[in-house]
Specification:
Elements: H1 12-15, H2 29-32, H3 38-52, H4 63-72, H5 78-95, H6 103-112, H7 119-136, H8 138-149, H9 154-170, H10 177-190, H11 196-213, H12 215-222, H13 227-239, H14 323-335, H15 348-351, H16 371-390
Helix pairs in contact: 3-5, 4-5, 4-6, 5-7, 6-7, 6-8, 7-8, 7-9, 8-9, 8-10, 9-11, 10-11, 11-12, 11-13
């Protein structure tokens, strides 16, 4: 079985050819629409309604026509008001986003006219407000709704709250945080309104908003509200049906930094960076220096200093030293305190004394206790000092 994906039917607005509605207006339109006779005003608006009922209206400068419709909302004749509202609805549907520049000319007068007691007039104005919302979205009409919810006339507050409910039911995207705050705070205050229809409409608006954002986020607006009013909001919450979904996130441009912050620069040679991989033509890294063998001590790395000449002794051969021992001795000599003063010359008697070999392990001969014994002891002590100093 081959599954066929269901596709949305093409929009008539996209397929239709835009048309300038001013071309189909009668020449007497500007004169009739401001006439003192309500029938002529009604005929002018009916002609505009006929010209506006097309799938798509060409975006031209309709400021004069929309301003006339805004003034007609304050007309004393309810028939004129009804036809004017129908004209606003048709033009908003034909222009869609292009109607944004004319919203302020008609929304405030229509909200104020919601105080009309005749239900047919209120329904016509409500249809026009719904068309403006469908064309522009909740963000564009929320300020006008807020003004209606604060209006001194209770019927205007009631109808504004009902209009808000219709907007929340059909809005395609979730309101943002600021819009949620405005709706929640304003409607919460209306739960204690003295007019019962206002309280019911506000509770329905809060219940519909709760359906969109969830019960957890709605707790902040219901704190301090008695259980009876909370139960009313909960009732509307369970019955509400909405279409709102989270707004799609804008796609980041290629090479742009991520949303969490600026992109971290990659360090050359770091894991994961391109510089860590070898490329043709790149200079090869210098070879690692081999460390000396374990036989050499860490002191061998210190710079050599010139070896100080030692004091030669007749008949005594200095022991052979390796390069390592030589450098060690030189380093030690460089750290020794300043040289001692020269020793007095060795008596001539010492010259006749046979040289003592360094490697001799024989015990020292016993010396006498006389003068010669003391001289020999002094000579041996002096030679011992000189020998230890020269090989430090």
């Amino acid at each position: 079985m081959v599954l066929v994906e269901e596709t949305a039917p093409p929009d008539a607005f996209d397929l239709a050819e835009p048309f300038d509605i001013r071309k189909n207006l009668p020449p007497e339109f500007s004169e009739w629409v401001v006439s003192t006779k309500w029938k002529e005003r009604k005929d002018a608006l009916e002609a505009l309604l006929t010209a506006s009922q097309i799938p798509r209206i060409k975006e031209e400068n309709y400021t004069e026509i929309i301003s006339t419709l805004g003034k007609s909302m304050k007309d004393s004749n309810i028939v004129v008001v009804t036809v004017a509202a129908q004209c606003v609805e048709a033009i908003a549907k034909g222009l869609r986003k292009g109607f944004a520049q004319y919203r302020s000319l008609v929304m405030a007068p229509m909200v104020g006219k919601l105080k009309e007691r005749k239900q047919s007039v209120v329904d016509a104005i409500g249809g026009a407000m719904d068309a403006v919302f469908s064309s522009l979205g909740l963000s564009e009409v929320l300020d006008d709704i807020q003004e209606g919810l604060k209006h001194k006339n209770p019927q205007v507050r009631t109808e504004s709250a009902r209009f808000l409910v219709r907007c929340l039911r059909t809005t395609p995207f979730n309101p943002n945080k600021s819009e949620i705050s405005v709706i929640g705070e304003t409607c919460t205050k209306l739960l204690t309104d003295t007019f019962e229809p206002v309280r019911n409409a506000a509770a329905e608006a809060l219940g519909t908003l709760m359906k969109i954002i969830g019960e957890r986020q709605m707790i902040q607006f219901l704190e301090g509200i008695d259980d009876i009013r909370k139960a009313k909001v909960q009732e509307f919450f369970e019955k509400a049906e909405v279409k709102a979904k989270p707004r799609p996130q804008p796609k980041a441009a290629a090479g742009a930094a991520p949303a969490g912050g600026a992109a971290k620069p990659k360090v050359a040679g770091a894991p994961g960076s391109r510089m860590s991989m070898a490329r043709p033509g790149m200079a090869k890294p210098a070879p690692a220096v081999k460390r000396p063998s374990s036989a050499a001590s860490s002191i061998d790395k210190e710079p050599d200093s010139p070896k100080k000449p030692g004091i030669a002794r007749p008949g005594v051969k200095p022991p052979a030293t390796t390069a390592t021992a030589t450098s060690r001795i030189a380093h030690r000599q460089s750290m020794v305190a300043p040289p001692r003063p020269a020793s007095p010359p060795v008596p001539a008697v010492a010259a006749k004394k046979p040289a003592v070999e360094e490697t001799s392990s024989a015990p020292a001969p016993k010396l006498g206790r006389g003068l010669m014994g003391r001289v020999c002891l002094s000579e041996m002590a002096l030679l011992t000092i000189v020998y230890s100093y020269s090989y430090r």
